[in-house]
Design a protein that fits this description.
Blueprint: H1 6-25, H2 29-33, E1 37-41, H3 44-51, H4 64-84, E2 88-92, H5 101-106, H6 115-136, E3 143-147, H7 149-158, E4 167-171, E5 200-202, H8 210-222, E6 229-230, H9 234-239
Parallel strand pairs: 1-2, 2-3, 4-5
Antiparallel strand pairs: 3-6
Helix pairs in contact: 1-4, 4-6
Keywords: Hydrolase, Lipid degradation, Lipid metabolism, Secreted, Signal
Family: Belongs to the 'GDSL' lipolytic enzyme family.
GO molecular function, one term: hydrolase activity, acting on ester bonds
Length: 240
């Protein structure tokens, strides 16, 4: 299916969603939006299917400029949402792409996470934090929270049983192998699915299971560790 860019999503939000919201509530949306939480997660597809894709068959050349371009673009989109009335933003960091089953399908001899890919992800996440700190000064009255998915998921991968999981390497579903024309991500149509989805970190070759997303959400709302949620948690943000 078609993947909408963030620009397209925000345009649809402004041109379609907001008029419908105002018509339903019978008032201007600008004041209302200041109470809403805008959850924004970007960069995953940019890194997985563009920046990192050639390196799955070769070496990775890390370029800080790629991370800067993405975060600079993100800052412009956040300013646009701010101009529409948004004031509370939750930014999701990238999770450890070097550990996803898709990577292992391209690198079958790789026993552990691909360090080069995770280093690139950490570059982006560091830049994301710096961007959030800088842009807050340009958007008076705004508050930005970063949920560090990287650390939260890595903590699971390092010791799955301690977090209630059993398998942090394989996908829950039956992936189509590359030898059969698969992409390392998609589940086989009619293929087997693991009996206990809550025991797996990944459902397919790319996406975490619902159990992992619930774990991330709980951390986002209640953690007081700044290396998990920065600078405050989502529960505190919602009360502002």
């Amino acid at each position: 299916g078609h993947v909408y860019s963030l620009t397209e999503q925000i345009n649809k939000f402004e041109e379609v969603t907001l008029p419908e919201l105002e018509a339903e509530l019978g008032c201007n949306s600008t004041h209302l939006l200041s109470k809403y939480l805008f959850v924004v997660g970007v960069g995953g597809n940019d890194y997985t299917f563009n920046y990192f894709r050639p390196s799955l068959n070769g070496s990775t050349i890390l370029d800080q400029g790629f991370a800067s371009n993405l975060t600079n673009s993100l800052s412009q989109h956040l300013k646009k949402l701010y101009s529409l009335g948004g004031r509370k933003f939750v930014l999701m960091s990238l999770y450890p792409i070097g550990c996803i089953p898709m990577v292992k399908s391209f690198k079958p001899k790789q026993k552990y996470c691909l360090r080069e890919l995770n280093r690139g992800v950490r570059q982006f996440n560091t830049q994301l934090k710096s961007t959030a700190d800088a842009i807050k000064e340009q958007m008076p009255g705004s508050n930005l929270v970063i949920v560090n998915q990287y650390k939260i998921i890595m903590d699971i991968i390092k010791d799955p049983p301690s977090k209630g999981f059993k398998d942090a390497k394989r996908a829950c579903c039956d992936l189509i192998p590359l030898s059969e024309g698969g992409n390392g991500v998609s589940c086989r149509k009619g293929g087997n699915v693991c009996g206990d989805r809550n025991a797996y970190v990944y459902f397919d070759g790319l996406h975490p299971t619902e159990a992992v997303n619930v774990h991330i959400a709980n951390k986002a709302f209640s953690s007081y560790l700044k290396n998990e949620v920065y600078p405050i948690n989502v529960s505190q943000l919602a009360k502002l």
